[in-house]
Write a structure and sequence with these properties.
Elements lengths: L1 H16 L11 E8 L5 E6 L4 E6 L5 E6 L5 E7 L2 E7 L4 E7 L3 H4 L1 E5 L1 H24 L4 H25 L4 H26 L33 H22 L11 H14 L3 H18 L3 H12 L5 H15 L11 E4 L4 E3 H4 L4 E6 L4 H17 L4 E6 L5 H10 L7 E4 L2 H7 L8 E4 L5 E6 L6 H11 L6
Parallel strand pairs: 1-7, 11-12, 12-13
Antiparallel strand pairs: 1-4, 2-3, 2-5, 5-6, 7-8, 9-10, 9-13, 11-14, 14-15
Helix pairs in contact: 3-5, 4-5, 5-6, 6-7, 7-8, 7-9, 8-9, 8-10
């Protein structure tokens, strides 16, 4: 099948080659391709640092083409139907893509001048996804066993990359991007390990890790400008600063102190570390924004949120991010326990329109999903199926958040035989997501039979969620037997 896809891509490239896509200028590059089963009429190509944001419209054959002038070696993001991937573009490149939205990453193939480096980059993403499944298993093992697993995996990936470059030489820039993607994926897994192995309540045992466990930190560059859009680099920085702040926590607290990931001082320590170690404005602002958002999402204290925001405002230079976080705080203020759920419009599979309050007639759990996150929507629906069996008198509402044509939503729920009586989508997704402060899919809202909020933000995948739900129900004196 993969061989067939490559042949089809080559034919496509030859067909489009009949058009004028030759790249003769030394500072020019071409980017084009074909989207199978498109979830919209456009592809967005962008890079914040280069201040590039180009909208590339699909033609009647679902193809697009774009010439970029004054190209410097850059990693661009391209987005279609809510999915995001990356492409390395350098002067004289003429890169074509072909992908099927039903298997976005798995079907993505590059052809043309500049294809080899991009196909290898995508391969590293796919390998990282596969390897992540082993991470949970090895994260339960002793530090020495885990460290050996990561070291062997890392070396194997680097050796494979060296063999690739020997056969198909690529530029120093492209090589640095791909190697960084390999390196930072492995470094991130080591930063995440203590939270999984020790658990949040026993992070004091960080001091018991092998002496050289974090030796790789000497290679960390907090200002990798060309990687600022890359997932694994940002994943590393997020987990790295979480981890560094734990050390700060225990410098200021006795070792027997219970570590609390939601504590204000711990989260302010993250901001202080980012501010002191990161110089690049884009990378720093991004880290400050998401670390502040994480705290705001889980804090019930207005005083603590104001304190965190004061720290954030003294460090960020992004007016756009400030406006976003202030809007988030305003939305969360309207989602306090006891308040009525905002009266947003939902649409069912028969295209009938309702308000959320109209479909709530019992204590109800409301969860969200996207057709672009297959693993999440399969897991969330399976988890809810378990909860339905345990809480048969409770209501469950599943809301799709996509803003693309509803055929993709309907195809998914029919394909996986989701319960049609509990499936809805937002009439106005962008407004609804902002109003309900849904900035990550794991957020779940629990309401009573009058659609009044019991808890605006729970995680059904937490191992003790059933007990949490029972406690919520008892506090509201609701009987669900």
């Amino acid at each position: 099948m993969r061989r067939l896809i490559i042949i089809l891509n080559l034919l496509l490239f030859s067909f489009l080659g009949c058009k004028n896509i030759s790249v003769s200028d030394t500072d020019t590059a071409f980017f084009g391709g074909e989207i199978i089963n498109p979830k919209g009429d456009r592809v967005i190509l962008y890079n914040r640092r280069e201040k590039v944001s180009d909208t590339l419209f699909l033609d009647t054959n679902n193809r697009f083409s774009h010439t970029i002038e004054n190209v410097t070696p850059t990693v661009y993001s391209f987005r279609h139907g809510g999915e995001i991937q990356f492409v390395i573009l350098e002067p004289k490149d003429s890169v074509m893509i072909r992908l099927n939205t039903y298997e976005f990453d798995e079907s993505l193939v590059f052809t043309g001048e500049g294809a080899h480096k991009n196909n290898y980059l995508i391969k590293t993403f796919q390998n990282n996804e596969k390897e992540s499944r082993k991470l949970v298993k090895y994260s339960q093992k002793e530090p020495e066993v885990f460290e050996n697993f990561i070291a062997n995996r890392h070396q194997r990936e680097l050796s494979h990359f060296e063999r690739f470059k020997a056969k198909k030489p690529i530029s120093a820039f492209a090589s640095s991007v791909i190697q960084a993607n390999i390196d930072y994926h492995n470094y991130a897994d080591k930063e995440i390990y203590p939270f999984i192995y020790f658990g949040e309540n026993k992070m004091v045992h960080l001091k018991d890790l092998p002496e050289d466990f974090y030796a790789f930190r000497n290679k960390t560059n907090y200002n990798e400008k060309h990687l600022s859009e890359m997932y694994d680099y940002n994943r590393y920085l997020f987990s790295h600063f979480d981890n560094l702040a734990v050390t700060t926590f225990y410098k200021n607290n006795a070792f027997h102190s219970k570590f609390d990931r939601r504590q204000l001082s711990y989260n302010k320590a993250k901001l202080n570390l980012v501010d002191s170690l990161v110089e690049d404005e884009i990378i720093k602002n991004n880290l400050l924004k998401y670390k502040t958002r994480e705290f705001i999402n889980h804090s019930n204290s207005k005083e603590n949120i104001n304190d965190m925001m004061a720290s954030y405002l003294s460090k960020t230079t992004s007016e756009e991010d400030i406006k976003y976080l202030n809007g988030l705080i305003a939305s969360l203020d309207n989602l306090k326990p006891g308040k009525g759920l905002p009266d947003l419009k939902l649409i069912d599979v028969n295209d009938k329109e309702y308000t959320i309050a109209k479909v709530v007639d019992k204590p109800t759990l409301i969860y969200f999903w996207s057709t672009n996150r297959k693993k999440h929507y399969k897991n969330s629906h399976y988890r809810v199926k378990e909860l339905k069996a345990q809480f048969p008198k409770m209501g469950f509402i599943s809301i799709n958040i996509n803003d693309n044509p509803d055929k993709f939503w309907k195809e998914t729920i029919h394909q996986y035989k989701f319960d049609l009586n509990t499936e809805y989508r937002f009439k106005n997704p962008k407004q609804a997501l902002k109003t309900l402060a849904v900035n990550y899919l794991y957020k779940v809202i629990v309401v009573d039979n009058q659609a009044n909020i019991i808890n605006p933000n729970v995680n059904i995948f937490n191992k003790d969620f059933e007990n949490t739900l029972k406690d919520m129900i008892l506090k509201k004196e609701l009987v669900l037997k």
